[in-house]
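Severity: low
Component: inverse-folding endpoint
Summary: output formatting inconsistent between runs
Steps to reproduce: submit the following structure tokens with default settings.
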């Protein structure tokens, strides 16, 4: 037994699916995708930039892309380009950033950091201890801790009141359930803060790996400066 496709003129229409986007929006998206492909890092093989995809504009916060004009190279805010690329109606008025000067400053700072890892280690230890957390977050963490302790004391006093027959079992269950719900909410918020601390512990691991690899990196830096 063989099968053959049914010709389109014999197809039975069972429904009509409305377009999710207008034709104009579809064409805009296609143009944006084409632009993104043209400026994508993986497709730029003509020039090598030290700070590729790492520089952002101090005015509009958009990324800065490398440009070559005559004999000089710059980091230019994409906010100065066509709105189809920048996504902004008004062009950014920030100046071009001389690439050579910025690269030299960043490279010198990076070399100094790699040659003196103690400063990096101290900074990461401070981050791990929470010293770099904004005061608002530090205050929130302390408030959550105090609130948790207070709720635990309230549950203990509530239990004592029930055991001494000051309140009924029904009242005890109702009030304890309310306190436990508040306790669960505080615990969830504390877990969010602990997740932030876990990320800082990862930074400490990076610092240790950096210490192990330091001799090799230092040798490469000296060789590159020769």
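Observed output (run 2 of 3):
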């Amino acid at each position: 037994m063989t099968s053959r496709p049914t010709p389109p003129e014999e197809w039975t229409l069972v429904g009509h699916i409305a377009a999710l986007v207008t034709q104009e929006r579809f064409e805009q998206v296609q143009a944006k995708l084409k632009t993104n492909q043209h400026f994508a890092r993986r497709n730029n093989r003509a020039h090598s930039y030290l700070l590729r995809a790492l520089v952002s504009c101090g005015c509009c916060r958009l990324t800065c892309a490398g440009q070559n004009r005559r004999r000089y190279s710059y980091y230019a805010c994409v906010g100065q380009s066509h709105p189809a690329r920048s996504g902004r109606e008004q062009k950014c008025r920030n100046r071009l950033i001389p690439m050579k000067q910025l690269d030299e400053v960043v490279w010198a700072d990076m070399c100094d950091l790699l040659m003196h890892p103690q400063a990096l280690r101290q900074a990461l230890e401070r981050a791990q201890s929470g010293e770099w957390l904004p005061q608002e977050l530090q205050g929130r963490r302390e408030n959550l801790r105090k609130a948790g302790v207070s709720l635990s004391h309230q549950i203990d006093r509530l239990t004592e009141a029930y055991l001494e027959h000051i309140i009924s079992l029904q009242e005890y269950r109702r009030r304890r359930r309310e306190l436990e719900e508040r306790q669960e909410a505080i615990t969830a918020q504390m877990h969010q803060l602990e997740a932030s601390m876990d990320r800082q512990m990862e930074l400490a691991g990076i610092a240790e790996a950096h210490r192990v690899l330091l001799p090799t990196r230092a040798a490469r830096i000296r060789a590159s400066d020769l």
